[in-house]
Known about the structure:
The chain is α/β, with parallel strands linked by helices. The chain has 13 helices and 14 strands. The strands form 4 sheets. The chain has an 8-stranded mixed beta sheet with strand order 5-12-11-6-7-9-8-10. Strands 1-2 form a two-stranded antiparallel sheet. It is globular and about 60 Å long.
Amino acid sequence: TYRDAILRGEMDRGPLGMRPVNGRGGPKERFMPPQQRGRGGGRRRGGRGSGRIAVPLGRMNPPPTDMGRGPMMTAGPLGAPPGMVGGPPAGVTNNLMRGPGPGPIAAGPLGRPPPMMGMNPMFGLYDPFGAGQADLSLLMDQGREQRDEPHDMIPTKEENPFKHKNDYSMQFFDTSNRPQNYIRDSQYEAGFDEYPTLKKLIRCKDQLVKARNTPPMFLNTDLKHTDLLGTLGTKFDVILIDPPWVEYHQRAPSVVKKYWTADEMAALPIPQIADSQSFLFLWCGSTQGVETGRILLRQWGFRRCEDIVWIKKNSHTEDDPEKRVGKDIAAKGWDGSSIMVHTKEHCLMGMKGTVRRAVDSHFIHANIDTDVIVTEEPPFGSTRKPVELYTMIEHFCNGRRRLELFGEAHNIRPGWVTLGDNLGRPSYYDKDKYMEAFKDDCNFPGWIPAAKVMDMYQNHHSGNKPTCTVDHRYLSGSTAEIERDRPQSPPPQGKGPMGKPKHK
């Protein structure tokens, strides 16, 4: 073996040990005698310098002079390195690691050296390859085992495969803390901290919406017996509906005293008060209302285009006496007939008419917000919805005529007309005053009217033309800063922002 050649001094040794054979692989070709080098004895792997590097062996050190007389050393069979037939040499201490040193070591079979041979200061044995260095064959075996070890190991029974995982389901069962409680930066204001351009766009949009909002108006009325078009005197660009579903009645009977059936909601004159280009947002709860809501959208003349999901957190329930799920699981979202605990609600979004996101910038600004809302759920027994939905609607649709049906006192908001029978205050709505609030001028700095915004997209690369079916005074307009920073549809390859060929 090559190891025998090392012991007999027949190998060419440098100052750092035997030279590696570059470009040759295989476990038998790591070390080669000098007379075989350069003859291509071995399969080529890679280019120059890509061969395996041998472990430096260092110079052979003589035995220490102060170790005393030790046991006799005999040569192993078949030319193997000598093995120790006795214990450690006299005068050598073995307290550097733990316990006494190893016992007698015999030579390995067929000339294979023992795992540790000679004197090693760590174990009290003499190492002819240099003090403190491990046996070469042992290092080779360890390297081969590491290469052959599979990457995907099946955990043994003693190992716990879940010790490094977060079991949110068990956490919810034990403490009633929902998994969404641990979502980072779930507040609407904190969601844009890492996106400075989008955060700047949100601030500009909020300022423009505030400047173009109409005064808040509201009307106490029974929607089953109200002529909406005759009472309101105009059509609307955005309609938000939060119906009294039977699910809400079961959850909060003191708040939703009477619920509406699907037929009663289908009888609402929504097509008469929705303009030819308009959007409808319909809260559907978390049970049967989702499928019923899709049917209502089609019956009212809208096609569903989005599904906004409200994920409800319950992190602020430390003062809840019914903390554990098992004590009052109905209060945590289970109605007794569902398979899973409900911690979300759906809001279906419908569109009427043709609205192209690429060119109809005078009416919509898409991709500003996401379709997921993560907020704290209201107190038990309340059907209040998150305020973030109003912000999403105002950022998306530039129409100024906004209507909410089945509203309550907390839903009254600037820029909106709120109708409901549980407002808790006298009505304040005059259709003449409401129409006077729509003016085609604005003192907002850098304001661009909707007509000029349409002119900016007349020669769009898509070939489509802006479509506007409403009076421009019902639209918010825009600014140059908003048009520059808002997300837009990318142009085709090889063309500029307005469809002009790029110069090579």
